[in-house]
Amino acid sequence: MNNQPEKNQKAPNKPGFYTALIPLITMGLLLGVGYGVYQIRPQVLLVAAAFITGCLGFILKFKWSDMEKGIVNSIHKAMPAILIMLCVGILIGSWIASGTIPMVIYYGLKLISPQFFLVTACFICSLTSLATGTSWGTIGTLGVAFIGIAMGLGIPLGQAAGAIVAGAYFGDKMSPFSDVTNLAPVAAGSNLFDHIKHMLWSATPAWLLGLFIYFLIGLRYSTKEVESESMKIITHTLKENFNFNVLLLLPMVVVFYFAATKKPTIPGMLISSFIAGILALAFQGVSIQEFASAINTGYKSNTGVPQVDQLISRGGLMSMMETQLVAFTAFSFGGIMQSTGMLSVILDKVMKFTRKVSSLVITTISACIVTALITGSSYLSMIIPEELLAPIYKKKNIAAKNLSRIAEESGAIIVPLIPWSMAGVYITGTIGVSTFSYLPWAFMNYISVAFLAVFGFTGFTMASKKREDETQIGS
Questions:
Q1: I need a labelling partner for 366 at 20 to 30 A (CA). Which of 38, 104, 148, 249 fits?
Q2: Residue 416 to residues 8, 219, 311, 353, 427: CA-CA distances in angstroms?
Q3: For residue 332, which of 81, 77, 70, 79 has the smallest C-alpha distance?
Q4: 279: Cβ–Cβ under 8 A, 6 or more apart, which residues?
Q5: CA atoms within 13 A on the CB side of 437
Q6: Mapped to the 3 state alphabet, what secondary structure does 70-101 carry?
Q7: Average pLDDT of the residues of the chain
Q8: Residues 6 or more apart from 456 whose CB is under 8 A from it?
Q9: Which pLDDT does position 165 carry in this prediction?
Q10: Are 385 and 371 in contact (CB under 8 A)?
């Protein structure tokens, strides 16, 4: 008798295709208008999209407990990557406090060549972004300095800005410290270091080809000595405020060793941070309290030189909070879509156009670019297509690192080339060069997308899935 009501309870209605599209259209409008026009934070808009999707779930007779379970399951899958993101915040703060990152920046700037400005600008910005994990920080500091040099040398500012943007974004996406690079594997279900290594196949040739073009272009310009007060101030300030020593490379060696030998990522990061702490106390005179603060809220530089303070005041656990909130809210939306069956209805339709690997790759590229154009957000241009397409990659036995690679290179890296995106507005406002002026010269940003399309049609580098849990390194 007690089970009778449960037996008679009406099953939820299966959503139709057009009903399932409502949440996606709603989210597109919310993000396109709310984020693109009114600059409302994306996590707020994603909560609104999840709320509307939940209301639609109630109309379809789904229980809240089922939708809640979908949210929890979606977030649960992302937890390993989210834990790594927290460790990255610790790593950045500790490496700056120890002097490791400042030393890399210092010697990177010392490599500047007076003869090949465009090549040097791209290379130094790449190295700096790789070390710091921030394209915006690199553009806002070294980018401004290089633009000043370009003006003095009479080099077209569009070309100079293109080299700066391409270098900064290459280093950013290849850096294990980048929030974008950490976020890309989360929604796809891959892991950070496999994701970075897989991007080498497309990003590195695109970057090298860009450097070669900069080399050829640079041959026509004067070879007079490059002099820049900004560059001198940055290198002098770094040298004055940090004691450089070859031992400062130890934290980097530990991380690279753990990655190369496919050992667990998080222990390697924590060991590296512990060693960085010892080095900070021994060489930089940092107190235990100051080091703990750098791990929690990030390193705070007080050199008195704005360019340097902006470049190295970063890191810490708290620096990863906003990125994680974007991930949590996006997964909440995706969890409700999945638990109500709306996602599967859309995927059934998409599957008809993705029977071949080539069509799946082109679909992924197109979805990321369209999302980037609508939202202007590096985060959302990756997360939304990945959430939608990850089950298809899994069903076709294609490794998740393929999806995360495509999403970052055709989503996040295209965003700075969009004039109305936050990145486009920031870059133009910071270095004073319009997006359309530097767009043709940011070769790496769009050449890498062309490589992805070629790989999709040829099957080259399109790795097959090795194991069910691809969040483990070596998948």
A1: 38
A2: 55, 27, 19, 29, 8
A3: 70
A4: 98, 99, 100, 247, 248, 250, 251
A5: 13
A6: HHHHHHHHHHHHHHHHHHHHHHHHHHHHHCHH
A7: 86
A8: 357, 358, 360, 361, 362, 365, 462
A9: 96
A10: yes
Structure tokens at 137: 């920080």
pTM of the model: 0.74
Sole residue written with tokens 């690997």 = 357
Angle between helices 157-173 and 443-458 in degrees, nearest 10: 50
DSSP helix, strand, coil percent of the chain (3-state; round to 5): 75, 0, 25
Residue 175's alpha-carbon distances to 47, 183, 205, 413, 438, in angstroms, are 29, 12, 17, 13, 23
Q: Which of 212, 217, 215, 228 is nearest to 153 (CA)?
A: 228
What is the rounded CA–CA span in Å between residue 290 and residue 155? 43
Q: How many helices (H) and strands (E) does the chain have?
A: 24, 0
Signed CA dihedral, 225, 228, 234, 237: sign only: positive
In the block, residue with structure tokens 């990659």: 393
Q: What are phi and psi of 464, to 5 degrees?
A: -85, 155
Over residues 256-311, the pLDDT tens digits come to: 788 677 777 789 889 999 999 999 999 999 999 999 999 999 999 999 998 888 87
Residue 323: partners with Cβ closer than 8 Å, 6 or more residues away: 85, 179, 182, 183, 379
Q: Amino acid identity of 434?
A: S
Q: Are 163 and 122 in contact (CB under 8 A)?
A: yes
Distance CA 396, CA 464 (A): 9
Residues in the chain: 475
Q: Name the token pair of 44.
A: 């707020």
Torsion sign, CA atoms 38, 41, 42, 47: negative
Kindly state the tokens that stand for 274: 């512990």
Q: pLDDT tens digits, residue range 213-257?
A: 999 998 887 655 555 677 788 889 999 999 999 999 999 888 878
Looking at residue 376, its amino acid is: G
Cα gap 184→64, rounded to integer Å: 29
